[in-house]
Amino acid sequence: MIESMANWFLSLTWFPQMELASVKLLSVLLVGAGLFAFIAVNAIVLVYVERKVSAFMQVRLGPMRVGPYGTLQTVADALKLLLKEDIIPTLADSILFRVGPFIILISAIVAFAAIPFSPTVTAADMSIGLYYIVSISSIVVVGIVMSGWASNNKWSLYGAMRSAAQIVSYEIPVGLTLLAVVAMAGSLNMNEIIIAQGGSSNLFHWIPLPLPNWYMFNNPFLFIAFFMYIIGATAEINRTPFDLPESESELVAGFMTEYSGIRWALFFLSEYANFTLVAFLTAVVFMGGWQSPFETIFAAKTSLLVLLALALAWTGYVKTKANRLSIYPLAIIGLSTIAAWLFPGFAIWITEPGLFWIAMKVLSLIFLLMWFRWTFPRLRVDQLMYVSWKVLMPIALFNLIGVATWMWLTGEIQF
Amino acid sequence: MGYIESYLALSAILFVLGLYTVSTRRNAVAILMGVELILNAANINFIAFSKFVTHSLDGHVVTIFVVMLAAAEAAVALAIVLNMYNNTGHINVDEANSLKQ
Amino acid sequence: MITVALLILLLPLLSFAIQIFFRKFIESKNGEWISIGIQLTTLGLAFYLFAVMIGHYDPHFRIEENVTWFNLGNFSLEMGILIDNISVIMLLVVALISSLVHIYSTEYMKGDIRFSRYYGFLGIFTFSMNGIVLANNFFMIYVFWELVGLSSYLLIGHWWEKNSAADASKKAFITNRVGDIGMFMGLMIIMTVLGTLNYQGVYTGIASGEWEGGIGTLFGGANPHTLLTWAGILLFMGAVGKSAQFPLHIWLPDAMEGPTPVSALIHAATMVAAGVYLTVRIFPILTPDAMATVAFIGGVTAFYAATIAITQNDIKKVLAYSTVSQLGYMIMALGTGAYVAGFFHLITHAMFKAGLFLASGSVIHAMHHALHDIKDHDTDAQDMRNMGGLKSKMPYTYLIFIVASLSISGIPFFSGFLSKDAILAGSWAYASTAHEGWLASMHMAWILPFFGFGAAVITAFYMFRLIFMTFFGESKRPDIFEKMHESPKAMTVPLMILAALSLFFFYTIPSINPFSTHGWFSHVIENPGTVVNFGSTFNLEHFEHANHEAHMPAMILSLIVATLGIGFATLVYLLKKVSAESLASKLGVLYKGSFNKWYMDEFYINGIIRPFLKGCDAVALFDMEYYDHYLINGAGRNTKKVSSGVGVADDLIVDGAVNFSGYIFQWLGWSLKFIQTGRIQNYLIFALIGVVAVFLLNAF
Amino acid sequence: MADLIFWLFWGLTVASASIVAFSKNLIYAVFSLLGTFIGVAAMYIFLNADFVAVTQIVIYVGGILVLLIFGIMLTNRITQTVISESSFQKMFGLTVVFAVLIMVLIPVLGHTWTNGEPMAFQETIHQIGTLLFTDYILLFEVASILLLGALIGAATLARKER
């Protein structure tokens, strides 16, 4: 992408003639800025979504005052955070206190470089993309410990240590699970992993199933692996039910206790960035990434009609159950559908269908993880470690062997 | 960027800094950090020579083995350090002299 | 086949390992059934081998597998498995009796403090016994021979808290060593002369005349058979020790200190039979002189032990002497050339004697429990004088006793009749065919049939004496008698199986004539004759002919003597027509001699051990007083004087130089010690300085 | 431009390694190791060794560095943010080490090392995989056994006595 972007810049008539390397660097900076913007906007949207979803789960309205249906609430919150006084505790180690959040945020953003939003929109299409993401996300631990230590507060330190232990422990089952997929795909390149999931699923290579050939449907072991990955990933991003490091009731928000204002906002940003990253990774690795479950653009258009029908049904449901009208989803999706049918070039998911599909998958996964938050109670520390070492890890190892056996049985590898 | 000397010089500096750390620090964990520096210096050399001199990937493989060894070494060494701390209450290597005489 | 044999050999070892090493895990969870299961598997495999063997129905059926064990210079020792008719039958007997004893012991040893150990030792015993049976060479048999001795030692001393048990185990072990030394010397002679120890190799070596010439003529001059005779007798000494033959029999009665099932398994049926088995294996290489020795030792043992058994009051002692006597029979049979009869008696005797021992164990068990119930800890549970009238209380045990006793007494329709009759016929034939040498000159050979028949009378007598004292008449201790009851199923069922196996038809099939000697057994076991080339003195066909002729008179005579013995016992102990006490006082010296085992133990202690210890003392005294004092210490004293002179010069000149250099280095060390700080990091820096120095030296 | 980035990472590596060696505060030392490791990873990327670079980050940052941080924190009584740590034989060590540096740099800078054109960028992971499972298979197996041994050994050593 960087290469093509640089070439595109150079092909522009008004663009100053520069060295290719410099243009590339410019492109890199632009892409980085784009990723950062994406993450920032994403966080603001997700906070809103999270509030709304939790309200939905608890049968209440959620934010309603600021903007239509409260849509501007999080923007207001973000402004408030930016304008707050920047407090650094006197006894804190000020250098580490400042550096910590940035390490976390940078590692969260940098990991997005290898995420394939669509076949062409991939910041860096590396041959070791998956490994890269796994490795970059392990840097977070250092940042967390750094901030926790620097706060000079026992709650922060406890939270940081817990978090580090948790992330390090869950990296192992998650890594093993991903390894099973890598064995199946024969590549660490994200796009190749996605392409390997093309076509439709067929059990034992002769019973066709009415499912896309996503890895979660590919064979029973990867089906188990999918759920294990979801569990492990939830733990790695410290979300409920694995949110011990920042549990408010025990540790007063853990390593974030002493942070406020803009630095706290950075934590928040990186948390949602990691959240989205995990959803992206799951979508890529287990759910076919940017691949459409339907094969053609026509199918995509048809699916939009289906979505329209769903939106209609949703509107009706809200009308009858909650006795209020919620036409925004209907309006957005309806307008997009009409636009897509009339002007295929208008809607980006028609020109870049991958973006649409991966977004759909990622949003579903995000909804699923938010659902978890309001469904499961928090684990104890010993249960947390128990699940990682004594439940997930043996199953993951078994799965790895199982996948290898499966590949041997179906003839994908020979000895 | 294109000169092997820059990598070798970096490697030499890292090596010497590691050596200094190992030979002057009292804290056992700090000494371990010095050892890691030395190993990293060696790894840079491997990779640099494999790019500039041997033109093969054997250096990469060796580096991977060294990294793996470093991990094993760090785990075992830290276990020993923790044991030492449990038994003596400090991890200063120059005070670990109960075998003296 | 070889695999099956190896399984049979090694499975009991597994049982041993499990019982010993996993004792804690299995002891409280009926862990003995692991051993029993393994033993039953072994039994099944042995049956399989037996079926294969019977399927061949060939006297020359033979499978052998050899591997080199190790090489020493240019000679190598081999290990191997030999499966032929003899070993298959032995294996079956060992496996059967061992299984039955395993099952029997679940009840008999219930609650024992070393229950698991006991089963483990049974396992290692069975392993080593199977090893003896399956060995295809004399060296391997020797190895397992010692292992058997060891397990016997362990089992006799099972209750080592009792001094008597500990002593008995030591006695058994040491007495066996005496025999084993002879056996080892025999092995050495054979190894030296023939260079091989494999059975077949030895037989063919001797048959092809390899013995004649070279070292073979060492003692005999022109006659090579002198050394061969010695080799045979020395090898047979192993059997004398293990099978409790005359001079070395003293350990077996004492071995009754072990648990009764052990006595049944080891000291009646299998281990003591190992000696007979060894004699069977060396039978072809025995020269006539060696055979005569064997025969006489056997005959003497048979008669001598029987006479002792008459007067014993301990139920197990009676059976022990009876065992010695019967073993003497077997040895005598082999010595007289009645090879088939000897081996046959080994099998039948194993069955009925194991039955007798287990049945006596049943009685002892019941006595024990009864004594325990009335809290009497002083009365001897094995003493027949405390029993009597048990017929009504223990009907099964009684019945089994009767069957086995009829069998041992040689009454028709029982297995003992067949084998004993054959032995007696063999000794008769031997005596009648001895026409040369010292055997014929004084009709010495006729002593053997005399011993045989005499022992037969006595056997019948003492066996029924035992039965009448134990099961008939009035109870001598009514308080115990009240509490007696029959033993549990786990004990009686093995007994019934053994009693059933004492019936004749198991051995005479396909013929069901109780007087027949032409069953499957006499078909598959064939007298191999001898491989020694000594001319006409012993002729197999000649002997077989005489044997056939002697068969009928011997049978009639043996029937008569058996009846005589039983009748006399009935008169004395059942009908009380003749008073046993008055008989004893009339016979006086004979009674006392028999009662005190002909003073054999006393003879060993006073005649051999004490003089030997005295001799040792004398030698030690000489060693201390003269050798040490004058020769060693005298040399020392003189050396000391010379040395003190040299020492003065040494102190002044040599030490002075040495000390001076010492001081120099001390000073050097003192001045350098400040470098040695004990800090590794300092040393690291020093090493770096060294590196830089070397670099500098190279650069300039 | 690209050179600038290279020298930036070069400087980052040297600077953070110097903090490791000279800082009085152990916490600074251990956290600046992060900079060293990332700088070295960047060096690997400049040297076309992408797989090794990522491995460097996974193992060194995600594993060893976290272990070291835990080691520091578990072996000190934490009452304030500074864990000061005294060194000894500083000047002595510095002199000798400087001599060693000179000694190493003389041949490094005074020798012509390159052997033809440097290797162009290529995908390394497949070749490394092939090498690991062909030429280095024995080493690979031995390494796995070693790792298992280290795992068990470390667990046994660190376990509290029962």
Question: How is this fold's topology laid out?
Answer:
The complex is a heterotetramer of chains A (about 425), B (about 100), C (about 700) and D (about 160).
Chain A: H1 2-11, H2 20-57, H3 73-83, H4 94-111, H5 129-137, H6 140-150, H7 154-185, H8 190-195, E1 200-203, E2 207-212, H9 215-218, H10 220-236, H11 248-251, H12 261-286, H13 297-322, H14 328-342, H15 348-351, H16 353-373, H17 381-409
Antiparallel strand pairs in A: 1-2
Chain C: H1 2-21, H2 23-26, H3 32-56, E1 62-72, E2 75-84, H4 85-108, H5 115-134, H6 138-156, H7 163-194, H8 199-207, H9 225-242, H10 251-254, H11 260-269, H12 271-282, H13 288-311, H14 315-335, H15 339-373, H16 390-393, H17 395-409, H18 415-433, H19 437-441, H20 447-471, H21 478-483, H22 489-500, H23 505-508, H24 520-524, H25 540-574, H26 580-587, H27 589-595, H28 600-672, H29 680-699
Antiparallel strand pairs in C: 1-2
Helix pairs in contact in C: 1-3, 1-5, 3-4, 4-5, 4-11, 4-15, 4-22, 5-6, 6-7, 7-9, 9-12, 9-13, 11-15, 12-14, 12-15, 13-14, 13-20, 13-27, 14-15, 14-18, 14-20, 15-17, 15-18, 15-22, 17-18, 17-20, 17-22, 18-20, 18-25, 20-25
Chain D: H1 2-22, H2 26-46, H3 50-74, H4 90-110, H5 125-133, H6 137-158
Walk me through what this model shows:
The complex is a heterotetramer of chains A (415), B (101), C (700) and D (162). Chain A is an all-alpha fold and 415 residues long. Helix content of chain A is 68%, strand content 2%. The longest helix of chain A is centred in the first third of the chain and has 38 residues. In chain B, helix 2 packs antiparallel against helix 3. Chain D has 162 residues and is mainly alpha-helical. Chain D has 2 domains: 84 residues, NADH-ubiquinone/plastoquinone oxidoreductase chain 6, subunit NuoJ (Four Helix Bundle (Hemerythrin (Met), subunit A)), CATH 1.20.120; 40 residues. The mean pLDDT of chain D is 84. Chains in contact: A-D, B-C, B-D, C-D. Chains B and D meet through helix 1, helix 2 and helix 3 of B and helix 1, helix 2, helix 3, helix 4 and helix 5 of D.
